Amino acid sequence: MSRRREIVFLDVGGPIYDDVWYARALLGALRELGAEVTEEDFWREYDGCRRAQAGIRRALAARFLGAGADVVELSARARRRWRYPPEALYADVRPALERLASRYRLGVLANQPDTTRSALERDGIALLFDVWVISDEIGREKPDPRIFAHALSVAGCEAGEATYVGNRLDIDIRPAKSAGLRSVWILRGEAPPEPTAEQLAEPDAVIRSLAELPDALERLAVAR
């Protein structure tokens, strides 16, 4: 199988855009739903969720809205506030994607609002992607295994020909591995600030910058 047929799927929040913009949308949505939450309390809880790597929206809803809070409604309200301004784009994204596009196909596989395409187009990187799988467009969200199966089907490849790059263990790395994809964990955004040894052992590779991704993929190829 030629190297060109392999595909690298990327999440958007974390690998490409700074997750702080989604976190701020969540804070606004919590307040809209009646939560009396300070900035300090929110960011303290949010950092705890990052460390735990398990259900950030659910944990924030329970903490600030109470047990049994409507997570679906929280998500919907956050989505209406969720936009990536130009300054949300990480500086390492374009150079890394341009380098990757010369050797791999690239795909978006992300839980994102349908405005994400326009942000990537505005920032001049949309044309680098061959495959698009955005949750709001297909009606499924990670970690649902069907979204990974759908991505592979659209890409026309087997799981062994694909790698997934995300910044969450719970909705990125674990379901990608379960679907048979190689996994690369990027430690920014909703990743924990200081991952444990156990967490670091879960993905196939760990990077702290998208600039490190091309070399990480090369090492994974050699290890196969």
Automatic annotation (TrEMBL):
Any one GO biological process: small molecule metabolic process
The organism's place on the tree of life at top rank: Bacteria
GO MF, any single term: hydrolase activity
Cofactor names: Mg(2+)
Keyword Lyase: no
Matches recorded under Pfam families: Hydrolase
NCBIfam families: HAD-SF-IA-v1
Protein name: HAD-SF-IA-v1: HAD hydrolase, family IA, variant 1
Annotated source species: Gaiella occulta
